[in-house]
Design goal:
EC 2.5.1.-, Undecaprenyl pyrophosphate synthetase, magnesium ion binding, magnesium, 13% strand, ditrans,polycis-polyprenyl diphosphate synthase [(2E,6E)-farnesyl diphosphate specific] activity
């Protein structure tokens, strides 16, 4: 029997918590999938084959979650967990490029994350800067999304330098969401729109009448880009936490049990397969 759309995202077997902590995966039948073995390669190849008949997302959003919990479950430091998470991002982007997905938005640091302890934040800022540089070094176009002003000056200058030197890529554009909050993005967009309308000499009443959904959309961090077709979140959490709040009105969602450092190519392929099998109604 075919599961209804999204069923895979909600399914948890009795052994799922252990698999999530250890980084092992399971197939839909509940059998372990060894990513170093023949079974994994055959399974991944089958998934890719299934996707050939479908239109893949043109914009994929991903909430990278679970670095600290993975580190704790693995008996290693939080620092190593974040570092492994950063390396996973660059690996994930190569999978997207291979599949022909042209635009990916990666949420690396939220405004809420900025309330963490100074020692962890210092580490996060360094890893973020290194990861952004690595993304650009792979030849991808880098576009910053978020309140970059909230970052320390050294980190801010590094990531801005990467964006300024980034060149248009025919293969993949990456929005790096750092210091990002969905509510903050909408507030920033409205503020910019009001300033632009005020600069035209309009009265307050005229400004109020001129504010529109289209106008706000043109002032978002992702302006000029299509809304995300699919948003993936790792670690088992089933919420968006404000990620692309405006843009995700008609997005499809995939919630994966795996902690981000353990996220594998088959997880992405499963998410894409489920997305392709859904009937998108766009609110109709």
């Amino acid at each position: 029997m075919r599961r209804p759309p999204g069923a895979q995202a909600l399914f948890r077997s009795a052994t799922e918590p252990r698999r999530r902590a250890e980084g092992t995966q399971s197939s839909e039948e509940g059998q372990p999938v060894d990513d170093d073995g023949v079974l994994y390669r055959v399974y991944a190849k089958r998934l890719v084959k299934e996707l050939e008949a479908y239109q893949l997302p043109q914009h994929l959003g991903v909430i990278v979650d679970g670095n600290r919990r993975w580190a704790k479950a693995s008996g290693i430091t939080t620092a190593e967990g974040h570092r492994q998470g950063g390396e996973k991002i660059t690996e994930f982007l190569t999978w997207c490029e291979e599949l022909g997905i042209p635009l990916v938005t990666v949420w690396m640091l939220s405004t809420d994350n900025l309330r963490r302890g100074p020692e962890e934040l210092a580490l996060l800022f360094e890893i973020i800067a290194e990861t952004v540089e690595s993304i650009a070094g792979a030849g991808y176009t880098v576009r910053l999304a978020g309140s970059v002003e909230s970052l320390p000056e050294a980190t801010r200058e590094r990531v801005r330098h990467v964006q300024e030197r980034s060149r248009p890529s025919k293969s993949l554009t990456v929005n790096v969401a750092i210091g990002y909050g969905g509510r903050e993005e909408i507030v920033d967009a409205v503020r910019e729109l009001v300033r632009d309308l005020g600069a035209e000499g309009r009265t307050p009443d005229e400004i109020a009448e001129a504010i529109s959904m289209e106008g706000i959309g043109e002032h978002l961090y992702t302006r000029g880009q299509p809304d995300p077709d699919l948003i993936i979140r790792s670690s088992g959490e089933q919420r968006l936490s404000g990620f692309l709040m405006w843009q995700s009105a008609h997005s499809e969602f995939w919630f994966c049990e795996t902690y981000w450092p353990c996220f594998r190519r088959v997880d992405l392929l499963r998410a894409l397969r489920d997305y392709c099998q859904r009937e998108r109604r766009y609110g109709a």
